[in-house]
Each structure stands twice: as C-alpha cells, then as structure tokens.
C-alpha cells in the first residue's frame, strides 16, 4: 500500500501522486523510512567544494542536463502510455494488401492457394461436417489399408460374388433387349 509524504519543496505541487491525493503530496512505494535507491552521480559530477561556482558549459553540467532530458523523456513516455497513447518514439505503421489487377484492398489471407480444387472442396465439406475429425478417425492408416485389414464373413463374400455375377448377366442380356 503506497504511503503519502508531504516532502515536496514549498511553492511546488506534485500531481503525479495517486488519484485523489492532495496537491503537494508525493507517493512513495518503498518501505517506511526509505526513499528508494540513492541517485548515483556520474563520475566527475558538480561538487561545489571542488568546482566553486556552477559553470553551465562545463562537462558536469552538460552531463547533468543530458540526464535530466532523458529522465523527462522517460516520464513523458510513461505518462503517454498510462494515458493509452502510443509510445512517442515508436512510429505508427500498418500494412495493407492490394489486388494487383483491380487495385482494391483485400485481406492478406486471400491468395491463389484459396482457389485450388482442394481448397474449394475443403471449404465446402467444412460447411457440412468436420473434415479433420473424419480424416483422423482411422488412426493414421489409409482407407485402403483399413479395408485390406477387414476380414469379410462367408455371407458377405458370397453376397459380393452374387452381385458381380448378376451385373455380368445383366450386361450379357442387355444386347438382346436393344
């Protein structure tokens, strides 16, 4: 649970606190009595005991200014992301696919493979039953292998032979009728 501390300099207000926090308060998320990790100075930072008067053109001032700009940019980016805006350093981009003959926009999944005989029959069969389940219902064996493994009974075998004999007989008699 964040706690609120009023350790903001007089005359300033920090509105980056939690929603509903009073102006001039700062939200700290560390343990009570700690203020988070100490901010490290870059080697050679400004020290009045060493450098005397502050020189804005000195190396330590330029480094400090660059660091402040980076911190401000990171804070702005975090605020934009929190507000739901895109990251300011990222470009907004999108892709579109256009038909080469008509020039009109078309979905990216549409391609010549969709118009093959196999794809058409797949779409039509999917409308009526589950093609994938039917294809996988034979444990990976081909239909031919399934039929070969099936043993016919004597009655079924005799029925097939009789049927074949009837067809032959029908063809033999057909020329007599014509």
Please characterize this protein's 3D structure.
This protein is mainly alpha-helical and 178 residues long. Among the domains are: 1-31, no CATH class; 116-169, no CATH class. The chain contains 6 helices and 4 strands, in the order E-E-H-H-E-E-H-H-H-H. The strands form 2 sheets. It has a two-stranded antiparallel sheet. Strands 3-4 form a two-stranded antiparallel sheet. The chain is rod-shaped, with a radius of gyration of 41 Å.
Topology:
Layout: E1 3-5, E2 26-28, H1 48-51, H2 59-82, E3 97-98, E4 105-106, H3 117-126, H4 131-135, H5 143-149, H6 154-177
Antiparallel strand pairs: 1-2, 3-4
- Model regions low in confidence, pLDDT < 50 over at least 5 residues: 1-17
DSSP E strands, number: 4
Using the alpha-carbon principal axes, give the shape. Answer: rod-shaped
- How do the SSEs run, as a string of H and E? EEHHEEHHHH
Q: Sheet bearing the most strands, described?
A: 2 strands, antiparallel
- Average pLDDT confidence is 75
- As a whole number of angstroms, the C-alpha radius of gyration is 41 Å
Distance between the termini: 100 Å
The class by helix and strand makeup works out as: mainly alpha
Question: What is the strand arrangement across the widest sheet?
Answer: 1-2
Beta content comes to 5-15%
How much helical structure, as a percent, in the residues?
40-55%
Oligomer: single chain
Count up the helices: 6
């Amino acid at each position: 649970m964040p706690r609120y501390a009023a350790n903001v300099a007089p005359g300033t207000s920090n509105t980056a606190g939690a929603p509903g926090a009073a102006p001039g308060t700062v939200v700290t998320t560390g343990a009570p009595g700690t203020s988070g990790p100490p901010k490290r100075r870059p080697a050679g930072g400004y020290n009045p005991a060493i450098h005397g008067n502050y020189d804005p053109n000195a190396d330590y001032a330029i480094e400090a200014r660059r660091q402040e700009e980076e911190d401000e940019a990171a804070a702005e980016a975090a605020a934009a992301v929190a507000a739901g805006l895109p990251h300011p350093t990222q470009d907004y981009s999108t892709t579109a696919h256009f038909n080469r003959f008509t020039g009109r926009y078309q979905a990216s999944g549409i391609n010549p493979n969709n118009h093959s005989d196999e794809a058409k029959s797949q779409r039509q069969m999917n409308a009526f039953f589950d093609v994938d389940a039917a294809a996988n219902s034979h444990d990976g064996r081909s239909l031919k292998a399934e039929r070969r493994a099936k043993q016919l009974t004597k009655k079924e075998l005799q029925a097939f032979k009789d049927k074949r004999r009837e067809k032959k007989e029908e063809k033999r008699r057909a020329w007599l009728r014509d």
